[in-house]
Design a protein that fits this description.
Strand order of the largest sheet: 1-2
Structural class: mainly alpha
Shape: globular
Oligomer: single chain
Helix content: over 70%
């Protein structure tokens, strides 16, 4: 979901970064939690707005909005608290990682990237098997708004390689869908970073 990727990355993260720079000796809890809530709520609002404008679903946007924003307020608060916990742990263990201005060595970056990639594969392929079957925030909100799927789900069944995590009509495979998603996402990210690195190198060689 692009909204939940865009707003936390380009709204919440810059705010958290500024808060950490303003208070380098401690984690500004309220600022971090507030930034997390703002990012999640803006993402949720984007989903409601896009769904209302799409015309692909019989969905009354007002009850959807009333259900969707409060549940994501709770999600944002939890994510903010977890972010504070992680930052506090890092600040206690390696405070230089939050304040250092020197870049990390390339070999260290490669090892960390490989470790994160393996961790993502384990989570996507392993932990997805024990994920709850209960509705998530979006599904719960749609049920409250009496959502009636129409062309949007029909289109998904035709264009998505894993519609609703299914390999066939009767076989769910969230692990495979998760693994493919991780690999494709990191592949796109690697491609974008490669292009940006080449452009940066070209600019440096060209000079002012």
């Amino acid at each position: 979901m692009i909204n939940m990727g865009f707003f936390p990355a380009f709204v919440a993260y810059p705010l958290i970064r500024k808060a950490l720079q303003a208070f380098p000796a401690r984690v500004p809890r309220l600022a971090v939690i507030g930034a997390a809530v703002l990012g999640v709520e803006l993402g949720a609002l984007g989903v409601v707005t896009e769904t209302a404008l799409s015309g692909l679903a019989s969905l009354h946007w007002k009850p959807f909005l009333i259900a969707f924003l409060p549940i994501h307020l709770a999600i944002g608060l939890l994510e903010g608290i977890l972010t504070v916990a992680v930052l506090s742990f890092v600040l206690r263990l390696r405070p230089d990682r939050l304040t250092a201005s020197q870049p990390v060595a390339a070999s260290g970056n490669q090892r960390r990237t490989l470790l994160l990639f393996l961790l993502a594969l384990v989570i996507a392929g392993g932990l997805s098997q024990v994920a709850s079957s209960r509705p998530d925030g979006l599904e719960w909100s749609l049920s409250r708004a009496r959502f009636e799927p129409e062309a949007s789900l029909t289109l998904q069944d035709h264009v998505s390689p894993f519609p609703d995590y299914r390999l066939t009509d009767n076989q769910d495979n969230p692990a495979l869908a998760g693994l493919v998603g991780v690999i494709l996402t990191l592949g796109v990210l690697a491609g974008v970073l490669s292009v940006l690195r080449r452009r940066s190198t070209h600019s440096l060689r060209k000079g002012p």
